[in-house]
Structure formats: C-alpha cells, structure tokens
Amino acid sequence: MGLCHGKSIDHHLPTQSQNPAIPIEKDSTTSNSHPADKTSDIPFYSPSPLRSFFKNSPANSANSSVTSTPLRFFKRPFPPPSPAKHIKSLLARRHGSVKPNEASIPEGHEVVIGLDKNFGYSNHFVAHYELGEEVGRGHFGYTCLAKGKKGNFKAHDVAVKVIPKSKMSTAIAIEDVRREVKILRALTGHKNLVQFYDSYEDDDNVYIVMELCKGGELLDRILSRGGKYSEEDAKEVMVQILSVVAFCHLQGVVHRDLKPENFLYLSKDAKSPLKAIDFGLSDYVKPDERLNDIVGSAYYVAPEVLHRSYGTEADMWSIGVIAYILLCGSRPFWSRTESGIFRAVLKADPSFDEGPWPNLSPDALDFVKRLLNKDYRKRLTAAQALSHPWLAGHPDTKVPLDMIVYRQVKAYICSSSLRRSALGALARTLSVSQLAYVREQFNLLGPNKSGYITMQNFKTALTKNVTEAMKDSRVTEYINVVSSLQHRKMDFEEFCASAISVHQLVGIQTWEEHARSAYELFEKDGNRPIRIEELASELGLSASVPVHVVLQDWIRHSDGKLSFLGFVRLVHGVSSRTFQKA
Ligand SMILES: Nc1ncnc2c1ncn2[C@@H]1O[C@H](COP(=O)(O)OP(=O)(O)OP(=O)(O)O)[C@@H](O)[C@H]1O
Ligand SMILES: [Ca+2]
Ligand SMILES: [Ca+2]
C-alpha cells in the first residue's frame, strides 16, 4: 500500500546545488536527516535491491554529471513528505494498527481475534518452489526470487510476493489481499501486465507467484536519467502504461496506485517491455459507478479521490503525473507535508512555464494538460490518450474499445430528440482528425456492410475482449441490461453525435468556436419555438423543479426558440438533479 510512504523521488535525487557529483543511488542524507521522515530507517522502506542492477549501468554512471535536471530540483531540496495526517488515519483504518515502522515486526506479534485469514489457496508452496533472495519491498509485502521445483515451472525463475498474515489486522486488509490475487489472476493476457502464475498460503504468509521482472522499477530508470526523458522516450513509456491501463479499465478494474514504482521492466534491455504490478489497491468499478475510499499515493492521487467520488478517471490523473515527471523531471504537485500535497492537488495548477516545457512540442503539453485536468469529466480516457496526436503516430499504439463511448451512446439514446439534434449539430463542427478516435471506436464496434451499428455491437465487441475480470466487475451484466433496451440502428454520423463527450470538448481551446458554429447549424435545421413546459418535459425534469425560473434564459424572448445559452446547456445534458444541486 503506497499511500504516502512509497519511495519518493526525494530519497534519490540530491539537489545539484548541494552536491553536483552525487550519483543517483540511495541518498542516506535526505532519507535519514529529515525528522518528518519516519519511514527512512525502516527496513521496509530501504530501496529495492533491484536498484543494484543499475549500479554499474552506463546510464547510471553517466548520470553523475547530469546538468539538465530541471530547475525545481535545484531550487529546493526534496525532503520526503511528512507522515500523513488525515490520510494516514485512513490507512490505519484500512490496515488496523499497522504503522510503517511496525512493518517488519515478526509474525504473530499482533494477535487479532476473529479474522478469517484462510484464503483457500494451495498449501504446497514449499513443495513447489525454492525461495531465493529478496528483490523488492513494499508496505505490506516483500518480493523474492524463487525457483520452481517441479511441474511446468521446474528450474524456472519466478518472483514471489510474500504477504505476511500478521500484517493483515483488519477485514479490509484481508479483503485487499484477496482482491489483489483475484484481479491479478483474472486479468490475464496483456503484454504490459505482470503474468500471474499461482497463489499459495501457509499459516504465516500468502505467496503470489508471478513472472520475474529483472529490469527494475520505472522509477529507477527515471532516476538513472536524472529524471528527464526525451519526448520520444517518454512516448515509449506512455504507450505501454496507457495500453495496460486501457485494458484494465475496459475490464472494469481501476488500479488506484499507478506510480513509477509500480511499473517494472521485464529485463535490463533498453527495449524491454514495461509491466504493471501491484494490484494491491485495485478494485472493480462499473462504468456508472463511483468509488469513495481514499487510497493511493499522495503525489499521484486525483482530486476527486480526495473528494471521495471517483472512477477510472482517477488512474488517468496518476498517468498525467507520471507523464509530467517523465517530461520535465519534477513533480507537478509538491509540498513538504502530505496535507500540502493534497492542497496543491486540489487547488494549484502545475507549472508549464519553466524549462523544459517551453521547448517541448505543443502536442506533448496538450497531452499532459488534458490528463491533469482537475475536472475528471474533461480528462482523457486511456483509449483517448492513445489516440491523442502526441501518441497517434507511435508504432505500438493500438487503441482498444473505450467504455466511455458506451456510456455516452447510452445517454444519447435516452436523451430528448431536441438534445440529439443539438449534439448532431455539434458533431458536424468537428474535423476528421478531431473525430479520429470516434472513427476508431466505430470501427472496433464492427459496423455492418451498410455502415450501421446497434447496441448489440457493443455486446459483441466486448465479448471479444472478455476476461474473468470483466465478469467479476459485472461490466458484462451491465451491458446486457442496456443492450436489450435499444436495437435502433446508428450510422457513423449519428454515432459521432452520440459518442462525443461535451465535457471533454469544453476542455479544448476551440470550444467556444465549436459551440458558436454548432448553434448556427442548429438554428438552420433544429431550432424551433418551444414553451418552457414543453422544454421541461423534453428534458424529463420533475415537477419539483421551478422550470420558469431555471429555464427562462434558455429561451430567446424574440421568437421563443432556444437561446445560445439554452443550446449549450442542452448539449451538456441536464437532469432534475442538476437543478436541485444548483
Ligand atoms: N514480478 C516481480 N518481479 C520482480 N520484482 C518485483 C515483482 N513484483 C514486485 N517486485 C518488487 O517488489 C516490490 C514490492 O512489490 P509490490 O509493489 O507489489 O508490494 P507492496 O507491498 O504492495 O508495495 P506498496 O508499498 O507500493 O503498496 C516492487 O516495488 C518491486 O521492486
Ligand atoms: Ca501495494
Ligand atoms: Ca508497490
């Protein structure tokens, strides 16, 4: 669990102004000298031994003379954040009385009565594997090398994450481990996801056996380059992260702890694939569902997670933070204390003024900004991010099906004819390149020879992508219910109107122009005189809404047709709840 205690870049990036020649390795001065850093002298927080793989690498030695580390690294030292205040208490609630500095207490120290710590996994770990040296540690688990003794894995090297049962002192902590194994087991078959092999248990531990990643953490590579990537190298990383996250989201799984420590390279090779690990905080989420528990790592946590209402978009924020770090080498939201970081996440805009941002491509800037949008509705989804012009030309970019499209289309079908025609006008203002992602999604849905799709196509397309996780997350069930409601055909033009997200369009620079030209088109063949009562009923507003008050500006007094404001509000989509909230 990486809440605020994950290894931070601070531990490893000494400030050049203090000591320009310090190679990037474990920095004992920063980690031990700061009084707030209670984690620094804890065995669980020592840097992963995998770092030693890098010690003699050319990238690492070259780094000792790095001069291009961005300004923010020079200006102030990066003491680790102080232990969490309110978030720390949430962590404690989740994991009982476990405090970071108790993380290495021998098994059996905490006696918790009444918790069922039987997972139903095989008891024969020792018969199957020979445990070797430790290769990494996290908050509640440590990972060892192991060799198979028999069966398919005989003489094969694997990684085993060992999670001591003594650390599972609440039902939630036990459930987290159960879910971690279940999700890892279910999410098979993506090349950027660590391959799960098996799970075991004995009286003391749970053992998760998986593919061994020998290439170290992404964090190590970032550090070994002085924290800055060229755009091309950053793209390489981003495409892989987005690809696996788009896959998880389609399966109805939100990772909730995306950070450079949780991506490992399979080998030390420069071209090695990157693998997502650590599904310890992951959860299932249906397309319309909102989660509310605050989990994650402080630097990477999305604002809506702190507001306790979030979905898969929270992962996209974390990816935005990773992208920002890759491209400029410093964190977008930084403070000395954890509560300060949260304040920054909620209120501050990341800086794009200092070097190297002015020299980066406008596409790179736009990409990062559209991930670090505080309004989760305006943020890119993983599939959209893969279609973003910054990555679109990349050879490994393969855009998968995006559940947001399903959500949009469903909302469109349930909308009034007035709104559908307004959305149609808006879609007609978008260029072919702006609609490239919608076109890709349409093709993925497999239109028939005449170029039409129905909701049934969503079901068929999803079935092609189904894993156990999709069943566990009940995404399939959700699709089944809705597809039985609607069999209407839709051509590409109508699909565009239905699939575009107005909230996301508002986030682009040219929104105002689109809205104006769409209104002109709507004026020509969609706008008509409408009474307030009729409008209210088209919008499906309940009787409790004072329609003459809230809708009066929606109608143009000169001719009784929809005003520009009414048009804009209409395309956003409204419900009685919108007005009750206002
Ligand atoms: N498949 C693997 N191959 C090699 N090393 C691994 C593997 N899985 C995990 N590790 C190492 O073990 C470390 C801890 O694993 P993991 O992040 O899953 O543990 P955790 O206790 O859940 O961590 P956290 O404190 O971030 O929640 C990783 O950071 C990594 O260095
Ligand atoms: Ca974890
Ligand atoms: Ca981890």
From TrEMBL:
This is non-specific serine/threonine protein kinase. It comes from Kalanchoe fedtschenkoi (Lavender scallops). PANTHER family: SERINE/THREONINE-PROTEIN KINASE. GO terms for molecular function: ATP binding; calcium ion binding; protein serine/threonine kinase activity. It catalyses: L-threonyl-[protein] + ATP = O-phospho-L-threonyl-[protein] + ADP + H(+); L-seryl-[protein] + ATP = O-phospho-L-seryl-[protein] + ADP + H(+). Belongs to the protein kinase superfamily. CAMK Ser/Thr protein kinase family. CaMK subfamily. Residues 433-468 form the EF-hand domain. Residues 129-391 form the Protein kinase domain. Its EC number is 2.7.11.1. ATP binds at residue 161. InterPro entries: CDPK_Ser/Thr_kinases, EF-hand-dom_pair, EF_hand_dom, Kinase-like_dom_sf, Prot_kinase_dom, Protein_kinase_ATP_BS, Ser/Thr_kinase_AS. It is an enzyme of class 2 (transferase). Residues 1-42 are annotated as: Disordered. Keywords: ATP-binding, Kinase, Nucleotide-binding, Repeat, Serine/threonine-protein kinase, Transferase.
